[in-house]
Amino acid sequence: MAASNILVGVIGKPHGVRGLLHVHSFTADPEDLARYSPLQDDAGKTWTLAWRSEGVAELRDASGRAISDRTEAERLVNVKLHVARDRLPPAGADEFYLADLVALEALDMERKVIGRVATVHDYGAGASLEIERPGKTPLIVPFTRAAVPVVDLSVGTIIVVPPKEIAPGELDLGGAAA
């Protein structure tokens, strides 16, 4: 059920003209991102990262060659950086790698199937789960203890209690207002 690669960072805009880049780390301690090098992008390319200042890094390709100018750095904006799952520490109690939540079956409090977690959105203010439901519009719920009181990775399910802002009929009508 666990993903083989975990998203740990994304390359941002260039910093200066010598190939340095802003890098957004998704690790608990941003400095740890460099410790997980080598990192892999979506195309399978390998990168080594070394921090040069807070949030600014030098990247080297698999051959050890550093990104050397702004033009080359601009081509890497929005490249996602991943690390093999087995290189990360285990999640603590009541902690989850967001990738582990994808594909879990979503159940209501009566354990009736609502759908399956299609993706996890995290824009910085807290994660939300997008639950796809066959023949219905997706349901978006905040990933909070109130809305998702139970996560059971061992059986591949979550219990979902939609917030009161979601109309009661919305679960049955696939997003249409009741």
Task: Write up what this structure looks like.
This protein is mainly beta. It has two domains: 5-86, RimM (Elongation Factor Tu (Ef-tu), domain 3), CATH 2.40.30.60; 98-170, PRC-barrel domain (SH3 type barrels), CATH 2.30.30.240. The protein has four helices and twelve strands. It has helices at residues 32-35, 70-74, 98-101, 170-173; strands spanning 5-15, 20-25, 39-40, 46-53, 56-60, 80-84, 105-107, 113-122, 127-133, 136-142, 150-152, 157-159. The strands form two sheets. A six-stranded antiparallel β-sheet has the order 3-4-5-2-1-6. It has a six-stranded mixed β-sheet with strand order 10-9-8-7-12-11. Strand 3 (39-40) and strand 4 form a beta hairpin. The radius of gyration is 19 Å and the shape is elongated.
Tag the structure with descriptive keywords:
elongated; 4 helices; SH3 type barrels; six-stranded antiparallel β-sheet; Elongation Factor Tu (Ef-tu), domain 3; single chain; 10% helix; mainly beta; 178 residues; six-stranded mixed β-sheet
